[in-house]
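Please decode residue identities from the backbone states below.
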């Protein structure tokens, strides 16, 4: 799981001098592949019998050092013991985390005279067995790493297990190892199923129960053949600590739900929670979506340096219970229109865990109902919010206004005791929270009763930054809201003249009471953007301020290619040998939004895969105006010349430029909006 080449962020770190791997890694993107049809006599998800050894009956939970330390010197015996100590001290062991896993770089580059692996005496002066003994003394389990090749993925050339499977497995068992992650680098072109099956047999021959993690990157569709080979299999290339990477992997893993179950799990890679590249909201989404997908939960941050906010995410036992439900169903997509996702997971007790996931950069109303997620008809339902840790009743609607990049995760059941809970209400905002300094903007807050019982004594209140003016233009209270009815309050919001452009916090608060007198306070954080009117005439988009920008690797670059992970490291925008002095350099998945203020007419650009990736990269471009697609290209490859696109954006308040992958993952998907222009 280590990366040598930063320009391939979503590959499983092939750090390779001479790694013989076939094809591009299958990191995820907007285009998701169709599932292969099951073979005769089988059903999807049971294409082969699961290993009947009683291991990994729920998705493994634990820690892996790679995302936080890579091969740096801080990865050592002291760190591993410290993580084990923290599992106990912070309650993570009690929450279900049990595996403390070593990734690459634990061994010396050469085997001994007998062909045995040798732990690095500087990193692990007492050997791996001593570390295993310490971890076991805490009631935890130890994992190690190697590769199904002649060497591991790191450029130092640590020994892989290809041709040494039985000897290495014996060493692991003798040391007391409980978990093996088996990577795919330097595999010499040997058939994947053969390589991974040989190690399965070698582990089995030791007689020691060892959870077997196949890290094959999804290259050969392991979900179709690995259920009786390993306990989990990677479905994608490596995750990176950014929104675009997490989102792409999520989209690759979601359609594979039929293949997961007790003892055989889809693995979308480790958690990045706490590593600093995403916001707390995004990390909660990451953790929520991995849990609803019944994914392994392997902490990838250095817990010795973790904030309380990180522990609060990782230790949410109600969310963990969704992941660890013994029925073992992976959540399935109910809907995904416009980046507004509903994913539902069947639970052992008949309830459904439902994730309302917002991939977009603005708050979105996301809604479904009990029937759509598979619940039986009932007069009402109990709805438990797993992040608020509160229970409500609902007449059947499951709905929320979800912040940008946020997730509302609930558990809904046809519970006869529904009336014991107050009615659920949804807070929302009509109108675009885009404000020109010195000019009043009209917004409308909406408080809706979703419950079977009425919401009583309902009130709404909107706050803005100090110095702003917020005035209600209609009533802010209602004595009673029946099921499905709303309190709508108009607001005039003004940012002071001279307020710099940028994002500012708004907060919508509401309160209501249940028929039994229980008071419920609700809060919806919102973002208002102070914007400047677009300039008249034709302007280069590379020179204009944007509302928001997300990118699959590194930042969006102005007037250069994407380059690598650092800001400002791009090159001249070049498509098919043609150089463009102006434009945007991005990496799929990417979205860049501009405020056009209903004053612009046309967006034009020459688009394609940048030449800096050689023959690699497949992408698709689209232009959206106020949530409506107005132009698109289809899939473009590096072998194709630039394609001209033009979109009519007349009357649009916001224009969004989107780049998605071409259906084969986002590896090397460096895309250019050459000579991108906006006419107003």
């Amino acid at each position: 799981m280590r990366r040598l080449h930063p320009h391939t962020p979503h590959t499983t770190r092939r750090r390779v001098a001479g790694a013989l791997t076939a094809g591009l890694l299958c990191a995820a993107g907007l285009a998701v592949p169709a599932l292969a049809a099951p073979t005769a006599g089988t059903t999807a998800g049971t294409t082969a019998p699961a290993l009947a050894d009683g291991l990994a009956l729920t998705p493994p939970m634990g820690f892996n050092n790679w995302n936080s330390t890579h091969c740096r010197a801080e990865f050592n015996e002291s760190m591993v013991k410290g993580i084990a100590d923290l599992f106990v001290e912070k309650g993570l062991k009690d929450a279900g985390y049990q595996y403390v896993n070593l990734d690459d770089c634990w061994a010396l580059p050469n085997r001994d005279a007998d062909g045995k692996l040798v732990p690095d005496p500087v990193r692990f002066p007492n050997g791996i067995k001593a570390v295993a003994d310490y971890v076991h003394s805490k009631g935890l389990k130890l994992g190690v790493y190697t590769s199904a090749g002649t060497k591991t993925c790191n450029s130092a050339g640590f020994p892989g297990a290809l041709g040494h499977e039985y000897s290495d497995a014996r060493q692991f068992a003798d040391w007391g190892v409980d978990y093996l992650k088996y990577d795919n680098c330097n595999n010499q072109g040997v058939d994947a199923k053969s390589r991974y099956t040989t190690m399965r047999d070698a582990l089995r021959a030791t007689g020691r129960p060892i959870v077997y993690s196949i890290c094959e990157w999804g290259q050969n569709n392991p979900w179709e053949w690995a259920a009786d080979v390993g306990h989990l299999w990677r479905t994608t290339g490596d995750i990176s600590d950014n929104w675009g990477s997490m989102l792409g992997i999520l989209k690759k893993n979601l359609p594979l739900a039929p293949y997961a179950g007790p003892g055989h799990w889809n693995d979308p890679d480790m958690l990045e929670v706490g590593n600093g590249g995403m916001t707390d909201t995004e990390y909660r989404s990451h953790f929520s979506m991995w849990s609803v997908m019944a994914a392994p939960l392997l902490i990838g941050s250095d817990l010795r340096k973790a904030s309380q906010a990180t522990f609060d995410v990782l230790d949410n036992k109600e969310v963990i219970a969704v992941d660890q439900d013994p029925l073992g169903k992976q959540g399935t997509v109910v809907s995904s229109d416009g980046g507004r996702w509903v994913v539902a997971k069947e639970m052992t007790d008949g309830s459904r865990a439902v994730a309302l996931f917002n991939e977009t950069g603005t708050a979105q109303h996301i809604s479904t109902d009990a029937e759509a997620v598979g619940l039986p008809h009932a007069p009402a339902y109990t709805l438990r919010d797993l992040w608020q840790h509160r229970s409500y009743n609902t007449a059947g609607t499951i709905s929320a206004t979800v912040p940008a990049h946020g997730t509302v995760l609930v558990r809904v059941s046809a519970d006869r005791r529904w009336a014991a809970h107050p009615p659920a209400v949804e807070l929302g905002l009509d109108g675009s929270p885009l404000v020109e300094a010195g000019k009043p903007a009209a917004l409308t807050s909406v408080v809706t009763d979703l419950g079977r019982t009425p919401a009583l004594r309902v009130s709404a209140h909107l706050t803005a930054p100090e110095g702003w003016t917020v005035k209600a233009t209609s009533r802010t209270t209602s004595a009673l809201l029946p099921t499905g009815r709303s309190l709508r309050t108009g607001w005039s919001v003004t940012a002071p003249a001279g307020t710099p452009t940028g994002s500012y916090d708004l907060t919508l608060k509401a309160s209501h009471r249940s028929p039994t007198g229980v008071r419920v306070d609700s809060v919806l954080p919102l973002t208002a953007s102070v914007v400047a009117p677009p300039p008249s005439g034709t302007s280069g988009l590379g020179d204009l301020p944007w509302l928001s920008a997300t990118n699959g690797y590194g930042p969006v670059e102005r007037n250069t290619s994407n380059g690598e992970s650092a800001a400002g490291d791009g090159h001249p925008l070049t498509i098919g040998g043609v150089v463009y002095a102006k434009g945007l350099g991005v990496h799929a998945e990417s979205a860049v939004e501009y405020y056009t203020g209903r004053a612009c007419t046309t967006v034009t650009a020459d688009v394609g895969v940048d030449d800096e990736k050689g023959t690699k990269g497949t992408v698709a471009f689209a232009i959206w105006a106020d949530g409506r697609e107005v132009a698109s290209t289809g899939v473009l490859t590096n072998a194709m010349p630039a394609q001209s696109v033009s979109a009519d954006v007349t009357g649009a308040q916001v224009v969004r430029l989107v780049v998605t992958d071409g259906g084969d993952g986002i590896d090397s998907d460096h895309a250019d909006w050459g000579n991108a222009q906006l006419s107003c």
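Observation: Confidence is low (pLDDT under 50) at residues 1-48.
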